[in-house]
Amino acid sequence: MNQAKTLACAALLALGLAQAAHAAYNVWTNEYSVSRQELETAIAPQFPRKLRYMDIFDVTLSNPRLGMDAANNRLTTVVDAQIANPLLLAKPVNAALTMSSGFRYDAASRSLRLDAPKVDNVDSQDLPPQYARQLTALGNATADQLLRDYAVYTFKPEQLEMNGKRFEPGKITVEKDAVKVEIKEQ
């Protein structure tokens, strides 16, 4: 009976910490779950975003739409892009960029960060297909500048400590509606 009370108290403590931090901790599987909604909230401040590429092109990114690519363990982000250069382009080029990124844990900052961003697809009705390679190169530079090492979630110290024991995030798995982060004892 005493063990059941201890387990119930630990579960309630974990739930309280998770609610304060806006990430759900599952005491049975030892993992935190960061929902798609939480990821959208974390990424939203990046948009709209104006970038300059090679001091030639002005790129404006807006309207991010997140997806979870569980099969490839990556987060996908589709953004509307407008590329302008009054000297080279008669009118701005509009495109939809589909970017994807993996995840990594940074122990120094206790944060879950985006890793290895890349452009998976460029869709534009404004440019002929032969310019897709250049537009993809521009998109990859943009993805790298915008998403590489961007912290989408930071663990609070108390989320990684319990009963005098320290824990560290392990395997990171992208699922249909959330990112799961395994928590292991150090």
TrEMBL record:
Keyword Signal: yes
Gene3D superfamilies: Uncharacterised protein PF07273, DUF1439 (3.15.10.40)
Keywords, in A-Z order: Signal
Signal peptide: 1-23
Signal keyword on record: yes
Name recorded for this polypeptide: DUF1439 domain-containing protein
Organism of derivation: Herbaspirillum robiniae
